[in-house]
Each structure stands twice: as C-alpha cells, then as structure tokens.
Write a structure and sequence with these properties.
Largest sheet: 7 strands, mixed
Number of helices: 10
InterPro entries: PHP_dom, PHP_domain, Pol/His_phosphatase_N, Pol/histidinol_Pase-like
Pfam family, one: PHP
GO molecular function: 5'-3' DNA exonuclease activity; 5'-3' RNA exonuclease activity
CATH class of the largest domain: Alpha Beta
Protein name: Polymerase/histidinol phosphatase N-terminal domain-containing protein
Strand content: 15-25%
Oligomer: single chain
CATH architecture of the largest domain: Alpha-Beta Barrel
Number of domains: 2
CATH superfamily of the largest domain: Metal-dependent hydrolases
Shape: globular
Structural class: alpha/beta
CATH topology of the largest domain: TIM Barrel
Distance between the termini: 23 Å
C-alpha cells in the first residue's frame, strides 16, 4: 500500500484532471491520497466521489504560498471538511492575486527576450484556479519545443532568485496562513523544507505554533540524507511528519506514490482532524 500526501491536478498547476490523477493513483497502488492544489479545493469533491469506487482514502488538502520574513514558504493544509466560508473566501482572494502576479512574470519574460504571450499561458490553465509559474513554464516549454528546445531546468532558472521572472508571492503571511488553516478546522504542515532559501528557517517556522513537517520528499539534492535529517527535525520540533511526490504530471522526476511515506503520520493526522 502506498501513501501520497502531496498531489496536484489541473485545478491548480497540475497537467492532469482529477479523474486522471485518481486512476493513476489506483494503478500505482496508492491507497491514501491527498489532493493539495495551490489555493484551490475545487477538485476535492470529484476526487472523493471517484475514490469510493477505487478503494482510495482521500485526505482533503491545499497548498498555500506564504511570506515569512520576506521569503516565499509553501504551506500544506489538511482538512476533514473544506467547506468553510472563511477558507474559501480567502482562497478566492489569493487566486486573483497570484494570477495578477503571473501576468507580471510574463511581462518580465517578454522584456528578457522570450517569445511568450499571455494567451500561451492561458491555454495551459485547465480550471478556475490561480495562474502560476507552473503554467508559464509549460507554456515556454511548448512554445520552444520544436524550434529552440529549452530544458525544464533552464526554464526553472527564470523563476528562481536572480532570474528574470523571479517575483515571489508575498501577500500572505506565513503566520496568517497557519492561523487560517487552524481556524478552518485543518492542520498545517510546512512543505518541502529542503527547498527553503535558508535551511535553518525551518526552526522558526515550526516555533510559531505546533504544526507538521513534510519530510518524505524527492525534489531536492541528497534526497536520502535530507529525509533522514528532516525526520530528526520533525521528531523534535513538529507534531508529525508527512510526505508526498509533489506530483504535477508524468513529466516530473518523482512519480505518484514513489516515496515511502510511513503510515504513522497518517494516523496522527487523522487524530488531529477529528
């Protein structure tokens, strides 16, 4: 039995529909799955309906971009029920802000000499979710795929610190996001700490309130050593450790259900959400 607590669909910046994601989870023997689209829970109800026929447990989730001391930090939120008016109102506000920021990113890319139009990005968006750099990256890849191919690694550099389209989303304080999740009946988990710009920041993040830490993650260098390190950090400073593939589509290096995520974290998460 496989567990994957970090998966994206077309409701945010994933490349596959909810139905395709659930069918893939079934094929990969994923029995416990969390849909964690960016600033959107639109796919949760459809996922729960389909999961009944595939013998998959769905843990409703969301991923939030937050600002901590001027740095972008990703925060996962897990819920028993996502139908909370305060949560949904705030998610709607953030989606609009992030779409506006994505538009500014495209303008930066154009000034930097890339042949990319906003309409190219819109073709990559499959829902009412926020337009994000993930959509822009796919638009660049498709625009240049035949004439002058660009690798995913090269495309990603445009959006990293120092890149021509690096515009971090800083309008949602980390502390406010943690409080929002708790106040909406959910439980927050700091996402992929190995990708933080300042590794020691994880201790400040975990010190704000008792929350969780995503430990079992693949998109970082020295994967096994970092997993071991963050497992120790979680044991001392977090309430639980989670993990997942951060699956966005078949093009990714880490596939759904690929990581060994312990069941213990799921047990703790269930208890916290009751």
């Amino acid at each position: 039995m496989r567990i994957d607590l970090h998966v994206h669909t077309q409701e945010s910046d994933g490349s596959q529909t909810v139905e395709e994601v659930l069918n893939l989870a079934h094929s990969n023997d994923v029995k416990i799955l969390a849909i964690t689209d960016h600033e959107s829970t639109e796919g949760i109800t459809r996922a729960e309906e389909l999961a009944k026929y595939l013998n998959i447990e769905i843990i409703p989730g969301v991923e939030l971009l937050t600002n901590f001391q001027g740095e972008e930090v990703h925060l996962l939120g897990y819920f028993k029920d996502i139908h909370n008016s305060v949560l949904q109102t705030r998610l709607s506000e953030i989606r609009k802000q992030r779409t506006s920021l994505a538009y500014d990113m495209v303008k930066c890319l154009q000034k930097g000499g890339l042949s990319i139009e906003w309409k190219d990005v819109e073709r990559e968006v499959g829902s009412i979710g926020a337009v994000s750099k993930g959509h822009i990256m796919r638009a660049i890849h498709h625009r240049y795929s035949s004439l002058n191919p660009k690798s995913w690694q090269d495309i990603a550099t445009y959006f990293r610190p120092g890149g021509i389209a690096y515009l971090p989303y800083l309008k949602h304080r980390f502390e406010d996001a943690v409080d929002l999740i708790f106040n909406s009946g959910g439980f927050p988990v700091v996402a992929h700490p190995g990708l933080l710009s300042e590794p020691d920041m994880v201790f400040d993040l975990l010190a704000y309130r008792p929350i969780g830490l995503e430990v079992y993650y693949g998109y970082w260098e020295q994967q096994q050593s970092l997993i071991s390190y963050y497992a120790e950090v979680a044991a001392q400073f977090a309430l639980l450790a989670t993990g997942g593939s951060d699956y966005h589509g078949p093009f990714g290096r880490i596939q759904m259900g690929q990581l060994d995520v312990p069941l213990e974290g799921v047990y703790k998460l269930r208890n916290l959400l009751t």
